[in-house]
Amino acid sequence: MSAAPELISSRSPRVAAARRLARRNFRGKERLFLAEGPQAVREAAGHRVDGAATLVELFATVEAAERYADIVGDVRATGARVHLAADDVIADISTTVTPQGLVGICRFLDTPFDGILAARPKLVAVLAHVRDPGNAGTVLRCADAAGAEAVVLTDASVDLYNPKAVRASVGSLFHLPVAVGVPVERAVQGLKDAGVRILAADGAGEDDLDDELDKGTMGGPTAWVFGNEAWGLPEETRALADAVVRVPIHGKAESLNLATAAAVCLYASARAQRASGGCRSVTDS
Q1: On the CB side of 164, how many CA atoms lie within 13 Å of its CA?
Q2: What is the distance between the alpha carbons of residues 77 and 28, in angstroms, rounded to a whole number?
Q3: Contact between residue 226 and residue 247 where contact means Cβ atoms under 8 Å apart
Q4: I need a surface site. Which of 150, 159, 196, 272 has the fewest CB within 10 A?
Q5: Do the bridges between strand 81-84 and strand 48-49 make them parallel or antiparallel, or are there none, so unpaired?
Q6: Are 12 and 96 in contact (CB under 8 A)?
Q7: What is the pLDDT of residues 206-245, one digit of tens each?
């Protein structure tokens, strides 16, 4: 009978270091973050930064290592260290209530803003003063799904590597360039200089999204600026935009939450940019 696999101890310095990555100051110091669950670990295993593997270490329960043997095999192929751990060790490292048995440690992967500009993006999401990590991760996921080529988090926004933001992105963090810590004025001016039209999303916007679509003005390179969950965009940020656009509310709902509004706006632009003979309203019933 084969021997039981050796499990990493909860007292191991490696476990202690992984546990500390739940704190922002430690993530910043080490330039490492946690990616939890099979989807995030799978995407991380296939990602590289400047030629180096993004995923550097994996902790897995024996059950998860067996269930997701293909993912663990991909991780091993990158040269990352794989540690088998008891359930309580994974629970100690994890920031979720119900861990899925896989926790990866990844290198920071944000992209310099100048690199995003140099790529001449056609569709960008700018998060200005967005503080909720779940919203930030969900908008990133929406941007990825809509085919955006970059996301920018301004200097007043939440930490990209907050575990809740990473989870909410559901792997999209590893799919498209993300710049962090960019002053909103620099983000807007840089994108304008790169030939990108700036649209500020605001429920009190002067321009209606349906009208913008019907006028055919959304087919060119576009950056959507999304504001804080509670108070939206300040006037000085709205003033930087080429247009302030509202998503029309055709029913009785008071408003849309940030992530839902972002999805509508980004998909509207994606449709307009892909249309061969104009476009009609995506909010038509």
Answers
A1: 11
A2: 27
A3: no
A4: 159
A5: unpaired
A6: no
A7: 999 999 999 988 999 999 999 988 888 999 999 999 999 9
